[in-house]
Write a structure and sequence with these properties.
This protein is of the alpha/beta class. It has 7 helices and 6 strands; from the N terminus they run βαβααββααβαβα. Helix 6 (141-152) links the parallel strand 5 and strand 6.
Length: 206
Amino acid sequence: MKSITVGITGASGSVYAQKLLARLNASSDVARIDLVISQAGARVVSEELGLNVAGTDRRVVRELLGEDSEKVAVHSANDIGASIASGSYLSDAMVIVPCSMSTLGAVANGVSRDLIHRAADVILKESRPLVLVPRETPLNVIHLENMLKLARSGVRIIPAMPSFYHHPQTIDDLVEHFIHRLLDHLGVSHEQLTRWEGSRKRGSRE
């Protein structure tokens, strides 16, 4: 049973965070979810999803999931003394989704201005899986250099780029497919067919 830390920051793409939280909450592989939402993240969630996720009360969980869940613990981004700020807390992995360029830059350079940055720094120093989901375009040289620095440190950079080989019919199809790819990198099992198994030539026989 895994413990996953989820950070939501002020980049566009709040729906990815919402869908990922729903899948983690429903997974029998996951026992606990530690959730941190930055101030900018809360504003973007409000703008994109029409949800009020400011604060740390149980309402935040109900807003995002449509129900309460004992799995989810909400931490203030200002609480540097939270459990996930220490390497002694056994979080199995962390994902920041969506990840703003400001947050990416802070993590790349070891700057801990809030709990999301500190938790990511802890995951790095403890050599645990850290997944960042940037959603920005175009990318400037600073963005790219920060990503390269993180990749060289073992961080998995997974930009929110949809794929089309599964023939999506709706925006939700695109989001769900991407979320299941994130689950793969977090080591959380699922039953969705997200893996390419090779194409078949027309007219070929079974």
